[in-house]
Specification:
95 residues; mainly beta; 7-stranded antiparallel sheet; 9 strands; globular
Length: 95
């Protein structure tokens, strides 16, 4: 699931994780499911359609920086502070 970056968007009323990659399924987005009723920043990805288990993803926002931690592998992504304009909407880049 490695690409040039990721972003969280809303699709069909549900948050999805979109990966900047040439793989169409990952570009369309993977649904994020709440995983901890006490922590609204903890989600789970259901990867069963790819023959994999679910993956826990934890977001944290500290000192104007949002990070995303993937539980099964030692990977952390940090959100850049710059704004990028895409399709008429302002989104934070993931560079």
């Amino acid at each position: 699931m490695v690409g040039a970056g990721v972003r969280v968007a809303i699709s069909g009323g549900r948050p999805v994780l979109r990966v900047a990659t040439p793989i169409p399924t990952l570009m369309r987005g993977l649904a994020l499911y709440p995983d901890d009723e006490r922590d609204p920043w903890v989600f789970r990805l259901d990867l069963s359609r790819f023959g994999m288990d679910t993956v826990r993803i934890v977001f944290r926002h500290v000192d104007r920086t949002t990070t995303m931690h993937l539980e099964p592998m030692p990977m952390t992504m940090r959100k850049a502070e710059t704004f990028v304009k895409r399709r008429g909407h302002k989104v934070l880049s993931t560079r």
